[in-house]
Design goal:
Blueprint lengths: L1 H8 L10 H52 L5 H7 L4 E6 L5 E4 L45 E3 L5 E5 L5 E6 L3 H35 L1 H14 L15 H64 L5 H32 L7 E4 H15 L4 E5 L4 E4 L1 H18 L5 E9 L2 E7 L34 H11 L3 E5 L6 E7 L3
Helix pairs in contact: 2-4, 6-7, 7-10, 8-9, 9-10
């Protein structure tokens, strides 16, 4: 219903082609104008009714006064002059209805004025006989005499005299109309002036009230021009415009955050693509040599089936060694992929110092000239013992390969807050600061470790870091005065 009324009351497209400031001002002015019209009509009707009541009251008072004067013996022109005037006209009619004395311009208004249709009482007389009841007039304390009566209209009173004549009292015709006309002119003028003042006040007030919308427009244009850090930051958020401005700022923050996340994701995707390409290149490089060796050895065995037995045994041994090397590389790559995909862990409380001591004994058997020292109190961690052993084995193998044959590897176990910390330090050439993160990339070997008999495939440290992070810890290279120092952190129970 309200939508239908809106469609009927406003032209189609009116709200779409006008500014918000104009629409608000116009609608408020329309409401104020309607209110003024309603108030004006109410005042006009109320005043008209009040003026009629006043006339009726004056008419009744004059009729009562006339009754008292008649009772006192007053008659003729003196009686008419005593009650005529101040909006009341008096006419004295004889028994035949002829005017004897009184107003002679227009006569009483309504029936009984000169020129009105003749009634039974004569020309200009009221219709029908006027009933005159004996007794006291309508004035308390008046003696017995004529009684005023109504002649069928509220604006006419008739007082019967003892000699059969009648005094007709009527209100002044047009008296109320003049007052109402003046009132209407005043109300129209004051209403128009008031609407003008309201229009100016509304224009200024709406302009001030809607200024935050202009600020939002300017801000949006500045942001579109490249100033992405600007915000409205309203002082009050408990108003409609304040909440709108706060929501606008929140939207801009979220858009900026989304853009940052998208840029970060795009950058990470590019870096991942670079790493993947480098990984594939390094994997192809690493696998090409053992596969080529296997192919060469196999072809030699095929071409010389009846050759020297000792030479055939050397070829077969080398073939097995190259095959194992390629297989180990493939296994390490698969292992790293499984770890990054979320390999399950058999977590339990385990002594990190005890696991480090066991791996120190193992590496001492593989490299008898290498001294391995373990220092630190028993420290319990919440970890998978098998995976932690794999981490330690990779770290010690890395230290053995890059340190001197007769050198020393130190293992230090400490506690920092809720984590257990294990450092593995060797006496090798160390790791440059620029390469301390690169050594954890797949198939990366530093230039000093590019020889095949001194370096591995470059997957040991990436596997160790992936396992450490799978436990909620980390593995990184820290500053060291001599050689390289790798620090492993694992969470403690609880």
């Amino acid at each position: 219903m309200s939508r239908s009324w809106a469609r009927l009351s406003l032209p189609e497209g009116w709200s779409a082609t006008r500014s918000l400031r104009f629409r608000v001002t116009a609608l408020v002015l329309l409401v104020v104008a309607l209110a003024l019209v309603v108030i004006g009509v109410a005042v006009d009707l109320s005043l008209d009714a009040q003026l009629r009541r006043d006339q009726q009251s004056r008419l009744d008072d004059r009729a009562a006064r006339a009754g008292l004067l008649v009772a006192a013996g007053s008659t003729g022109p003196s009686l008419v002059e005593a009650v005529d005037g101040q909006g009341i006209r008096a006419v004295l009619l004889d028994a035949a209805g002829r005017r004897v004395a009184g107003s002679d311009d227009d006569g009483p208004r309504g029936r009984g004025r000169p020129g009105a249709p003749d009634g039974p009482g004569g020309p200009g007389a009221p219709d029908g006989p006027v009933p005159v009841a004996p007794g006291r007039p309508d004035v308390p304390g008046a003696p017995d005499g004529p009684r005023p009566s109504r002649a069928g209209r509220d604006d006419v009173r008739t007082v019967a005299l003892p000699d059969g004549s009648r005094l007709v009292l009527a209100v002044e015709p047009g008296e109320n109309d003049g007052v109402l006309r003046r009132l209407r002119v005043i109300m129209i003028g004051v209403g128009g002036l008031g609407l003008g003042v309201v229009a100016v006040a509304l224009f200024v007030g709406v302009r001030i009230a809607l200024r935050p919308l202009d600020d939002m427009t300017v801000l949006a244009r500045d942001i579109a021009a490249g100033d992405r850090g600007r915000r409205l930051r309203p002082e009050r958020t408990d108003t409609e415009l304040g909440r709108t401005a706060a929501a606008f700022d929140a939207m801009l923050d979220e858009l900026e955050s989304a853009q940052t996340r998208a840029e970060d994701a795009a950058g990470e995707a590019r870096r991942s693509e670079v790493r993947t390409r480098r990984f594939l290149s390094d994997a192809a490089h690493e696998l090409r040599t053992p596969i080529a060796g296997v192919q060469t050895l196999a072809e030699s065995l095929v071409r010389h089936p009846d050759g020297d037995l000792e030479r055939r045994e050397r070829l077969a041994t080398t073939l097995v060694r190259e095959t194992r090397r390629a297989g180990a590389l493939v296994n390490d790559m698969l292992e790293l992929a499984r770890i990054e995909d979320g390999t399950p862990l058999d977590r339990r409380p385990v002594d990190l110092t005890e696991l480090a001591a066991a791996q120190a004994e193992r590496i001492a058997l593989l490299a008898p000239g290498l001294a391995v020292e373990v220092d630190g109190p028993p420290t319990t961690v919440d970890a998978d013992p098998g995976r932690v052993t794999q981490i330690l084995a990779n770290l010690l193998e890395n230290a053995r390969r890059h340190g001197p044959v007769e050198g020393t590897v130190r293992i230090e176990v400490t506690v920092e807050g809720a984590d257990a910390v294990l450092d593995v330090a060797d006496e090798g050439p160390g790791i440059p600061a620029a390469d301390r993160e690169r050594v954890f990339d797949r198939l990366v070997r530093l230039d000093d470790a590019r020889t095949r008999d001194a370096g591995g495939a470059g997957l040991g440290l990436p596997i160790a870091r992936a396992l450490a992070r799978a436990h909620g810890g980390d593995l990184r290279v820290v500053e060291s005065e001599v050689g390289a120092r790798l620090r492993l952190t694992l969470p403690r129970p609880g």
